[in-house]
Amino acid sequence: MPDKQEESVARRDFLSASIAAAGASAAVTIAAGTANAQGAPAIVGGPASGTVFTGDTIQGKRVVSALNVNDLEPGQKHRFYFQGVQMPTGQHWYVSVTVAKGARPGKRVVLVSGVHGDEMSSIHTVQTVMNQLDPTVMSGTVMAVTDVARPALEGMQRRWPNAGRGVDLIDMNREWPGNERGATATSRHAGQLFNRLLRPNADAAIDFHTGTTGFSVTAFNIAPMDEPEIRAMVELYPVGQVFNNRIYPGVLPNALIDVGIPAFTAEIGAARVLDIEMISLFVEGTMNVLKHHGILAGPLGRTGKDVSVFIANSALPILATHGGLVEHLVKLNDKVAAGQKVAVQRNSFGEVVAEYSSSVAGEVAGLRSDAMSEPGNPLAFILFNKATRDDGEAYSE
Ligand SMILES: [Zn+2]
Q1: How far is the C-alpha of 299 from the C-alpha of 163, rounded, in Å?
Q2: Residue 83 has pLDDT above 60, yes or no
Q3: 324, 314 in Cβ contact below 8 A?
Q4: What gap in Å lies between CA 126 and CA 163, rounded to an integer?
Q5: Which residue, 281, 220, 269, is CA-closest to 245?
Q6: Rounded to two decimals, what is the model's pTM?
Q7: Cα separation of 187 and 175, whole Å?
Q8: Environment of ion ligand 1 (residues, CB < 5 A)
């Protein structure tokens, strides 16, 4: 059961969102009511009306259960813990929030990492950008939320261990915009973050990721390039590939786009490690984005114009048909021709059991990095162009 304080916050959010909906054509989304555990009314995910301090302090950081960056002192950096969903012990999953509030008003950009728990370069990218910001010379605000799926991060694993029927592993990047009355803690955590932290403070947002454990990717961005405001940001990154697709419905950028906030996914190499060289490309691109929005002054760094960028609207997954050791015949970023052999697989006797070819011409964006594979594992993703884009493609962002 929610406690009294949470109830009152929920009611207040409901009220302010209802007022906003009545007063304007604001794109207020009704959180999905399909999994409504207590028969309570679904929370309406409207902009939070203000910052709510719980009164708690953890490791010197004040705790908030709702945040409006407009309430914060300008020209400073602020650090909070946001109170997320409760654990089975009754304690909360807190997530780390850093706000660089400019001395002058302006656009608000939100940087997110840790939606998956094994993607360390995404966290370091956001931290590096935040550490370079000087709020006294900024016009606008940058908010960073670096450890969204806390329980996944604690185990450095992709998915959230949920105590439902024994431990289920839930991919938090299929949950957005979440549901504060949802049937899992993961869904509720997503709903709380979306309604009270991310959406109310974003004029634009970037969700940073990497490949996943056992599967490495190149440096690229995933974005619907037919959206001009999103395209303008993506083109400011000096990285060599763009996957022009909306991919899964439940990813965070799609939930933000659906409420009118331009957003995209950045992909920064392999999971579990810091790829400092690749991180620097995304730091440079993100600083460009902050200049593009007028938050920072000064000339742009390198952009997509300074590198060769392959933009493709589709991703071909090449799936293993057998078990065995996989040897790749191509490298990340290689161009491949239709029909080109990309991998060979051998059984425990060293006999070749499968050879894998690309059916399309394109570029290699991802390769399985764990050499052992069972049938059904993606061995490679090939970016390529179809005549017409199919959104919702299967891609393990
Ligand atoms: Zn990810």
Answers
A1: 49
A2: yes
A3: no
A4: 30
A5: 220
A6: 0.88
A7: 6
A8: 116, 119, 209
CA–centroid distance, 207 to ligand 1, in Å, is 9
Cα-to-centroid distance, 40 and ligand 1 (Å) = 32
- From the DSSP assignment, how many helices (H) and strands (E) are in the chain? 7, 24
Is residue 243 within 8 Å of 220, Cβ to Cβ?
A: yes
Burial class (CB in 10 A: 0-12, 13-18, 19+), 59: exposed
List Cα–Cα distances, 325 to 109, 147, 167, in angstroms: 44, 34, 30
How many angstroms separate the alpha carbon of residue 342 from the centre of ligand 1? 24
Supply 74's token pair: 């300008």
Q: How far apart (Å, rounded) are the C-alpha atoms in residues 287 and 291?
A: 6
H-helix segments, the chain: 4-23, 120-132, 150-154, 185-193, 228-234, 252-258, 276-292
- CA 18 to ligand 1 centroid distance, Å: 34
Work out whether the CA dihedral 68, 72, 75, 78 comes out positive or negative.
negative
Instruction: Tell me which DSSP letter residue 212 carries.
Output: B
Say how many Å lie between the CA of residue 10 and the centre of ligand 1.
30
- pLDDT bucket at 389, cuts 50 / 70 / 90: confident
Q: pLDDT for 191-248, tens place per residue?
A: 999 999 999 999 999 999 999 999 999 999 999 999 999 999 999 999 999 999 999 9
DSSP 301-331: ---GGGS--EEESEEEEEE-SS-EEEEESS-
For residue 208, the CA-to-ligand 1 centroid distance in Å is 7
